[in-house]
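Why this split exists: single-chain examples teach little about how molecules sit against one another. For that reason, every record in the complexes split bundles all components of an assembly together and asks for one structure covering all of them. Below is a record exactly as it appears in the raw files.
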Amino acid sequence: MKRKSFREAECPVARSLDAIGDWWSLLIVRDAFDGIKRFSEFQQNLGIAKGMLTTRLRDLVEAGVLNLAPASDGSAYREYVLTDKGRNLFLVIVALRQWGEDHLYREDEKHSVLVDADERNPVSRLTVYSADGRQLAWDETRIVAANGAQ
Amino acid sequence: MKRKSFREAECPVARSLDAIGDWWSLLIVRDAFDGIKRFSEFQQNLGIAKGMLTTRLRDLVEAGVLNLAPASDGSAYREYVLTDKGRNLFLVIVALRQWGEDHLYREDEKHSVLVDADERNPVSRLTVYSADGRQLAWDETRIVAANGAQ
DNA sequence: GAATCTAGTTCTATTTTAGAACCAGAATCA
DNA sequence: TGATTCTGGTTCTAAAATAGAACTAGATTC
């Protein structure tokens, strides 16, 4: 059967995953953050099948994450650029990156690092803060339902 | 063909997605943060097929995200609890939640809110900071490759 | 002791994904 | 200018992932 959709889910996490949770989507977005724009660049950089890339790019454009614009090199081709909505996925990518760095490499394995453009120092770790600036651990938070209950 | 694996990718984002990027995985983790522990609870809460849930839970245990422990109610059953590695996915979930809240609801639609347990105020937005405390936008960061180049 | 609940397993049907082959229009080369 | 190559796809097949129903053994409750 068709994969179950979360598009109309109550939970924002589920809706996000419905929009950008299929295989390849976030890697395409990651590449877009790294300046990749053209179909062939994505294809070669990711090693993805062309047919798959075609449908993923179409889906991401439909989802409002990417825009299809005239190529910036003046050619008759087009290129894919992040929309505002797409750029706002930056934190998702950074969170995935930090978790991966922390848990998915052996001691002796090197990995790339996200640094700030000016100082070239690694960015600091993401943290959840309360409205009044306290650091919050996962068990110091709660979900309040839409209706205000719980 | 078998879906392409990113387990040995250089990029931490790709490795993360390989580990927790398949359909349902992060929703199971989200439920675990909400205190869901038992097989039947996950199954009913998510509306997932039992067979799918079985393989996802097995994968997450294999990945070190969940642990299978004796049920806390004293029965002979068992329950799934987040490991340290799993708890560290909190930021990923929060980032997905905030993006979804911002971009995937109509004006008139309500959604649940993440609040701090004490004050019951919504948590503040995630932000990327430089080592010296400046807020960084996506285009104020760079990726430095593992070998130190670029 | 019987009925029900829990946590699965197994099966089939459909959808997704990977990969190769093909193709038309744009750009480059000679 | 014409031939060749590059770009950005489309189409096809085969294998894997997912959904859902049916079934089951052991634990718990009635």
